[in-house]
Amino acid sequence: MPVSHPEQPKSPEQPEHPEHPEHPARSAPGAGDLADLDERVSGCRACPRLVRWREEAARTKRPAYREWDYWARPVPGFGPDGAALAIVGLAPAAHGGNRTGRMFTGDRAGDFLFAALHDVGLASRPTSTHRGDGLELRGVRVTAPVHCAPPANRPTTEERDTCRPWLVQELRLLRPTLRSVVVLGSFGWQAALPALASAGWEVPRPRPPFGHGARATLRAAGAGAPLRLFGCYHVSQQNTFTGRLTPAMLRDVLHAAAEAAGL
């Protein structure tokens, strides 16, 4: 279903330098709520390689999506204010989230994830096709450490670190209600731990290693409830098509995380 989006304004001055007011390091801490944060995220142009790639994907398109007006911008997180559970992935897909403008929407990884969320009662419907399709998440926020689609689904370390302030501020804004986090894949795990530390939780040292079914409890720095952390294989086709991650395995992790979050 084609969806129109307003064209992103393009300033001749790109916010690549950390001192630029629109760079994540400067812009993210000023977001007062999730709606404000999402708006700031969707205008980011801090990583030149990612900007080129996401916009090139929107120009060339896949034949099946030739009538779509691609989002072609950074994809913000998705889910309600006051979420008790967060799901952290990797980055949007070039013809999934980069096309639809919503995390894990419009590709097979998202189909796998939302079907499981629906099965455990955390999503209003089992499919996610486009923004405005009626899907609602129940107490869950879905996000990623990198908000732009990267070439070959592989952000660089520098791109991950440049994008981190967005995730840190998102976690800070969720902190009053957030009780558990599911991290999909080792890349997300490595990105999430320092973000969680910056957002106000104590990450054990040595850091807990990633693995499917990995669990850790992070104490809040100062007052606040502890956070339960869960590792899960990523919902990529490489994992789901080979059976490395099955629907039952994903449901088990989501059910445990939902229970820890009081959902």
UniProtKB/TrEMBL annotation:
Region (Disordered), start-end ranges: 1-35
InterPro entries (alphabetical): UDG_Type-4/5, UdgB-like, Uracil-DNA_glycosylase-like, Uracil-DNA_glycosylase-like_sf
GO molecular function, one term: uracil DNA N-glycosylase activity
One GO process term, biological-process aspect: base-excision repair
UniProt KW 4Fe-4S keyword: yes
One Pfam family matching this protein: UDG
Keyword Repeat found: no
All residue ranges annotated as the Uracil-DNA glycosylase-like domain in the record: 76-254
Stretches with biased composition (Basic and acidic residues): 7-25
Keywords tagged on the record: 4Fe-4S, DNA damage, DNA repair, Hydrolase, Iron, Iron-sulfur, Metal-binding
Family note: Belongs to the uracil-DNA glycosylase (UDG) superfamily. Type 5 (UDGb) family.
Protein known as: Type-5 uracil-DNA glycosylase
Species of the source: Streptomyces sparsogenes DSM 40356
